[in-house]
Design a protein that fits this description.
The protein is 21% helix and 31% strand. By secondary structure, it is an alpha+beta fold. Helix 8 packs parallel to helix 9. The longest helix is centred in the last third of the chain and has 23 residues, at 614-636. The chain binds alpha-D-galactopyranose.
């Protein structure tokens, strides 16, 4: 059993693979205290009360009630509430029917059971009874008649503990929730660093490292999506932790809307980490008897640096989050029309691309933006999901059938959540967009956001998607979302629920995704948001892959994919070989290198195959062969970062090692040639020390031990932006 309750000493011990997490019930009033999160430790003997500092000033309220406030303000609570004297970051803020915001919760009851529950209306990781144990601790505020249930699941095969929270109003009065975060962990000490992922459009997920300070560090998005700027991920780690060494605690919110992660160094040398839905623009009315569920936070512990945390996230997401037909399957090699033609295509053009693509071994044609309404630029037609038969002569079915006849599958782009002011839909239903009456909503990419809190709007979107997807043999959908939310107002919701728009919007997106994926289970879904603004575990629950960035330049992608892969598996990273000079940065890189870097993702093409040079085109069959040869390994193996070009400014290197350590693929990219310098040694990781590995190209043999400790010399690369794959196979 991964979770135990020790009745006498009143504590819970949650054991994941090599991780323990301990919660104590404290004092007569039964406060819930956080004891420990870290490397697995034996059950007994354990001195819980000394770890919780219960015998030191300011003592517990039963011993020293005159300093009750000091107790609240220093106690390592399991879930912080606002209003009684814990002045650190709180997780729960309410407004009762009298306008007061005081809330305090104490242990009431608990249950422990095998398995892992799903969260109502929300994506979440899943796990079988033989792998997972769940603990639900119900705490109560007896004055408010409020029940707060803290839900924990321990994975026995991984260093993972998940958390979520349910808040139930058992009173006969309406309560407003102003903030409901999903997790709170109070760590001992403040000597930690934090890493988080930051960026911008075309520059997503740069790794930022900073120290914990005696203040608050906040990583967040209030943009209505997880965003280009921040990702719902942070890791707290030892100051000297690196990729291979040190304690690292990763937190990732399984949610695709506004989020906050706050790390707060406290006056008594403790560090509080909280994570959940951002309280800005969040409010939830809880009528008598109603319950609110906060999204899941995944907590990963690693005793061996950032790299082990990464591999745990990858394993968890590949096996316990991503679902559907493509969960454990190679994805078809696609060619996408976006950077090939932008809006300038028609049936003939697409068929000419498909024809050439089929000759070279490409397996799917994806028709991106521009096939519907009057869409010849990004100025119009979102919402009018009817095929533009002036462009798609003969109709969609004809096009798809012709593409299928060439031996290719067919995929299509949608941006279902949006509406253009210049659209038939907007002319018919101007009140269907998110807006505040008498105020012209702010445009972004010339579009507004549909008010998905209104079921009628959702029904419309669903029926258009369904119609298009049932009308032809479509086996892939790119689900895009190209703007952030502003002008928060809904003509559908009553006044008192206007503060619920953003969370309701996210729930509606999930419901829509759920319906579409259930109705069309054979369709491969790739989510997208102006590139990678919705690269989060919430979306991964519905789509096994996510477009990583609109920046397809190979060298830029080294950085973007490196940051993305800190948390998310390579199997989920949408990556294509595109044309040069690159459309975003104007850089020219060898076609071969572009292939090596796209290989560390889903792999595909995004160029006009009929117009690229003969020399490049000729390389495509070889690249596709390489994809088929290595994708099983890349999709399922353990990912090791070996060198990072943003740190050394010269070269990048990573490796994927198969789970049985029998096969390794090393990717080495020389970003800049170093003058008067011939070769470079790299040190592999994660191999079988005692095994002999043979390079499948040169036939040279090495011991695993030598490859890891003495290193592997990379020679023969001359010039900037050049790369090399090294494939090693263990001798039987
Ligand atoms: C977004 C996507 C692109 C492309 C365009 C189409 O920017 O990230 O890949 O689909 O929209 O408008």
């Amino acid at each position: 059993m991964g979770i135990k309750f020790f009745e006498e000493k009143k504590f819970f011990k949650l054991d994941a693979k090599d991780t323990s997490y301990i919660i104590g019930i404290v004092d007569e009033e039964k406060f819930l205290g956080h004891v420990y999160f870290g490397k697995r430790i034996p059950d007994e003997p354990l001195d819980i009360s000394s770890l919780l500092r219960l015998n030191e000033p300011p003592f517990v309220p039963s011993k020293n009630n005159r300093d009750r406030m000091s107790f609240y303000d220093s106690f390592p609570t399991e879930y912080s509430t606002h209003g009684l004297g814990d002045f650190r970051e709180s997780c729960l803020v309410i407004r009762d029917s009298n306008g007061h915001s005081v809330c305090g919760i104490n242990y009431c009851s608990h249950i422990i059971y095998r398995g892992k529950p799903q969260l109502e209306g929300l994506p979440a990781t899943f796990g079988d009874k033989d792998l997972c144990t769940t603990l639900e601790i119900t705490c109560c505020d007896k004055v408010l008649n409020l029940e707060v249930t803290l839900v924990y699941t321990a994975f026995e095969n991984l260093d993972v503990i998940t958390r979520s929270v349910r808040v139930k109003n058992n009173s006969d009065k309406v309560i407003k929730l102003e903030k409901v975060l999903s997790a709170c962990v109070d760590f001992d000490g403040i000597d930690y660093d934090i890493i988080s992922l930051h960026g911008s459009w075309a520059r997503e997920r740069r790794v930022q490292r900073m120290p914990v300070g005696l203040d608050k560090r906040s990583i967040n998005s209030i943009r209505g999506e997880s965003s280009h700027q921040s990702n719902p991920f942070i890791a707290l780690m030892d100051k000297d932790a690196n990729d291979d060494y040190g304690n690292v605690y990763g937190f990732n919110l399984v949610y695709s809307g506004n989020f906050t992660a706050v790390v707060e160094g406290g006056q008594f040398d403790t560090t509080r980490v909280v994570m959940g839905i951002h309280p800005t623009n969040f409010e939830w009315t809880l009528a008598p008897g109603e319950e609110f569920t906060a999204p899941e936070v995944v907590m990963v512990y690693s005793d061996k640096g950032i790299g082990k945390m990464t591999r745990t996230f990858h394993d968890l997401y590949r096996n316990h989050l991503i679902r559907g037909k493509y969960k454990d399957r190679k994805r078809p090699v696609l060619i996408n029309s976006w950077e090939a033609t932008y809006f300038d295509f028609n049936t003939e053009k697409l068929l000419s691309i498909a024809k050439e693509a089929s000759k070279l071994g490409i397996e799917m044609l994806v028709m991106d933006d521009g096939w519907f309404g009057k869409r010849n630029s990004d100025n119009c037609s979102l919402g009018d999901w009817y095929v533009n038969e002036e462009k798609i002569k003969g109709g969609l079915k004809y096009l798809v059938d012709e593409v299928n006849k060439l031996g290719l599958e067919f995929g299509i782009w949608f941006e279902p959540e949006m509406i253009s002011p210049d659209s038939d839909l907007y002319r018919a239903h101007p009140d269907w967009c998110i807006h505040v009456p008498n105020r012209t909503p702010v445009l972004c990419r010339n579009q507004y956001v549909l008010d998905l809190t209104n079921d009628e709007v959702v029904e419309y979107v669903y029926s258009r998607l369904k119609d298009i997807l049932s009308g032809a043999n479509i086996t892939y959908v790119k689900w895009d979302m190209n703007r952030q939310l502003s002008d928060l107002g809904s003509s559908f919701l009553p006044k008192e629920k206007q503060g619920e728009i953003q969370h309701r919007y996210v729930l509606a997106v999930y419901k829509l995704l759920d319906r579409i994926t259930k109705e069309f289970p054979h369709v491969l879904l790739e989510s997208c948001s102006g590139g990678g603004a919705r690269f989060d575990p919430g979306m991964l629950y519905y789509s096994p892959q996510i477009w990583c960035s609109d920046n397809t330049d190979a060298i830029e992608r080294l950085v973007i994919q490196h940051g993305t892969a800190i948390v998310y598996p390579l199997s989920a990273i949408g990556a294509h070989v595109s044309d040069c000079p690159n459309h975003i940065v104007g850089r020219t890189t060898p076609f071969e290198t572009r292939g090596f870097i796209a290989l560390a993702g889903t792999f595909g093409y995004e160029l006009d195959i009929t117009r690229i040079s003969e020399e490049d085109r000729k390389m495509i069959p070889g690249q596709i062969k390489m994809y088929h040869k290595y994708n099983d390994l890349i999709r399922t193996g353990d990912y090791y970062r070996i060198a990072n070009y943003t740190e050394n400014h010269q070269y990048d290197c990573w490796a994927v090692v198969s789970k049985d350590k029998a096969e390794v693929l090393v990717t080495y990219i020389q970003v800049l040639q170093r003058p008067n310098y011939r070769s470079r040694r790299i040190y592999l990781k994660g191999l079988d020390e005692n095994a002999v590995y043979r390079n499948t190209e040169t036939n040279q043999a090495y011991t695993g031990s030598a490859l890891m400790h003495a290193g592997l010399n990379i020679i023969g690369i001359h010039g900037d932006f050049k790369g090399k794959l090294i494939h090693l196979v263990k001798e039987k």
